[in-house]
Amino acid sequence: MKKLSENEISEKLKDLEGWSYSGNGIQTSFEFENFKEAFTLMTRIAFEAESQQHHPNWSNVYNQLEITLSTHDAGGVTEKDFELARAIEDIVNSD
Amino acid sequence: MKKLSENEISEKLKDLEGWSYSGNGIQTSFEFENFKEAFTLMTRIAFEAESQQHHPNWSNVYNQLEITLSTHDAGGVTEKDFELARAIEDIVNSD
């Protein structure tokens, strides 16, 4: 899986809502109603990540969820990260 | 819920295994076999946290889980954090 250039990342970020690029990967954050809602969404994302065999770097405190995606083996951001990001967007939007 | 002093925290940490105190709270980390195992444990911890109405500050990447506990309302570490820490220890040890 090929590491994307910053230009390619910027282009692809236009198709997502609320994601940005940091040196470490593409990242976003969500605020839910409470912990139960946050963890419910995390569970749905966890199943999707496991299915894609590509896993998020994420942190949660109460109703807050922060997610960073990168591809360890490629040392940067790849199409796999965008695939998972789009799935996360679909999961959150369908809630 | 009363904020514990550093001495009190140090005393109580002796009853736990693998936890330490940082300025932000009491913290530990776990390494599991893979993501599925890590998230399985997170789910069990999530139910316990919700039941205690006291929630962790935690982050996960693949098989790694880092947990920090503190009591926001008290501005420090309280007995509630130790209660959740003990429950987390029981959950992980019973796995």
TrEMBL record, chains A, B:
Belongs to the pterin-4-alpha-carbinolamine dehydratase family. It catalyses: (4aS,6R)-4a-hydroxy-L-erythro-5,6,7,8-tetrahydrobiopterin = (6R)-L-erythro-6,7-dihydrobiopterin + H2O. NCBIfam families: PRK00823.1-2, PRK00823.1-3. The keyword Lyase applies. Keywords: Lyase. It comes from Antarcticibacterium flavum. The keyword Aminoacyl-tRNA synthetase does not apply. GO terms for molecular function: 4-alpha-hydroxytetrahydrobiopterin dehydratase activity. HAMAP family: Pterin_4_alpha. It is an enzyme of class 4 (lyase). Pfam families: Pterin_4a. This is Putative pterin-4-alpha-carbinolamine dehydratase. GO terms for biological process: tetrahydrobiopterin biosynthetic process.
